């Protein structure tokens, strides 16, 4: 949820747009008779964070790195609108349920993504929990590895101030001066839909338009959400060590912070009763808690390189890396 800090990348600038759009042309069809024998890297979808847009240079640089590490990777940038400024506004305003549904439709109807046996995904900040929403609600094509950086998986307890020059952000935050639980705010203001204050847990359960649902915190649990999370091969949760933008920063690891008390995911009911399939995923070695040095979204190129090398690439190569224990028919489930 960086507003001023979004994607402060420690990368060198470059002209990257042309190459990114050229992938679609050079990409080989992914679905062959046996996708297990295909050397083509799985496509990677990226969902950016609050205050950013899909065409931003920093985001494109990340896409370039993905392709540099696994040449020939199709990189798709999730967007809510074709214009960069409208896409940016949609990070503040909109109904997240509808936004996730749009991402689902766009991915499922994309000429290349829709033919892939699986995709990999990177979620920056709020884009991380939205991509988890994609996995739980749609997962067509299914995600193999979901990597989230500084995401608010267990919500936020405070909203960040905006820079004075950012009127879109200020207009959004002005709405919050009212009641965060009102249906006007919950249907229109994006950060409110992952606002989760343990001191107001009852209101959260009743009114949260997004997070309480995708975290399966209500009495009726959605079994499909759990099944879909269990289909992931990896869920990699990066927390920024010095994050002061996201409150609390431990939300990146699904930790519960109530006042000064921090409860790790493995000590929570969400895990012990396995509302989301996270315990099951953990048992097969797929749940990874990682830290990244620095403030929110201060991404370091070496860390990105290592992460992409570890979790992305062709279906079969990655399986070798992942070692034994993965079902051979991982992608033959309900696609
Ligand atoms: C958000 O959109 C969904 C789907 O259109 C709708 O069912 C839901 O009521 C909306 N949320 C609010 C708080 O209006
Ligand atoms: C958080 O702490 C408050 C105050 O101590 C307490 O009333 C509330 O029940 C706690 N919430 C949760 C979800 O543990
Ligand atoms: C990251 O990988 C790219 C592509 O291989 C390489 O050019 C770059 O030097 C790497 N960066 C670091 C910091 O290792």
TrEMBL record:
Signal sequence bounds: 1-22
Enzyme Commission numbers on file: 3.1.2.22
GO molecular function: palmitoyl-(protein) hydrolase activity
InterPro entries the record matches: AB_hydrolase_fold, Palm_thioest
Protein name: Palmitoyl-protein thioesterase 1
Keyword Hydrolase found: yes
Gene3D superfamilies on file: alpha/beta hydrolase
Keyword flag Glycoprotein: yes
Species this chain originates from: Apodospora peruviana
Pfam hit, one: Palm_thioest
Alphabetical list of SUPFAM superfamilies matching this protein: alpha/beta-Hydrolases
Key words, A-Z: Disulfide bond, Glycoprotein, Hydrolase, Signal
Protein family (similarity comment): Belongs to the palmitoyl-protein thioesterase family.
Domain of life assignment: Eukaryota
């Amino acid at each position: 949820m960086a507003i001023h800090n979004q994607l402060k990348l420690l990368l060198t600038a470059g002209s990257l747009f042309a190459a990114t759009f050229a992938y679609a042309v050079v990409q080989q069809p992914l679905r062959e008779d046996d996708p297990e024998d295909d050397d083509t890297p799985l496509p990677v979808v990226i969902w950016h964070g609050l205050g950013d847009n899909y065409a931003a240079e920093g985001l494109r640089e990340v896409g370039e790195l993905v392709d540099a590490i696994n040449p020939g990777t199709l990189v798709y940038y999730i967007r809510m609108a074709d214009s960069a400024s409208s896409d940016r506004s949609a990070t503040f305003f909109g109904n997240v349920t509808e936004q996730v549904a749009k991402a689902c439709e766009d991915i499922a109807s994309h000429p290349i993504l829709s033919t892939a046996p699986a995709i990999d995904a990177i979620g920056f900040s709020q884009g991380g929990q939205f991509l988890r929403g994609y996995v739980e609600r749609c997962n067509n094509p299914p995600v193999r590895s979901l990597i989230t950086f500084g995401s608010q998986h267990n919500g936020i307890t405070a909203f960040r101030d905006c820079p004075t020059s950012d009127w879109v952000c200020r207009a959004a935050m002005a709405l919050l001066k009212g009641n965060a639980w009102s249906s006007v705010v919950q249907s229109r203001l994006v950060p409110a839909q992952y606002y989760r204050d343990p001191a107001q847990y009852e209101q959260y359960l009743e009114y949260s338009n997004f997070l309480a649902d995708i975290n399966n915190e209500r009495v009726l649990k959605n079994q499909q959400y759990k099944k879909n999370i269990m289909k992931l091969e990896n869920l990699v949760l990066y927390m920024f060590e010095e994050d002061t933008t996201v409150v609390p920063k431990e939300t990146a690891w699904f930790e519960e912070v109530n006042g000064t008390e921090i409860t790790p995911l493995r000590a929570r009911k969400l895990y012990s009763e396995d509302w989301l399939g996270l315990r099951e995923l953990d048992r097969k070695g797929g749940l990874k808690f990682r830290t990244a040095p620095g403030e929110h979204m201060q991404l370091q190129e070496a860390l990105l390189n290592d992460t992409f090398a570890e979790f992305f690439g062709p279906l079969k190569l990655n399986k070798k890396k992942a070692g034994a224990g993965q079902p051979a028919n991982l992608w033959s489930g309900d696609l």
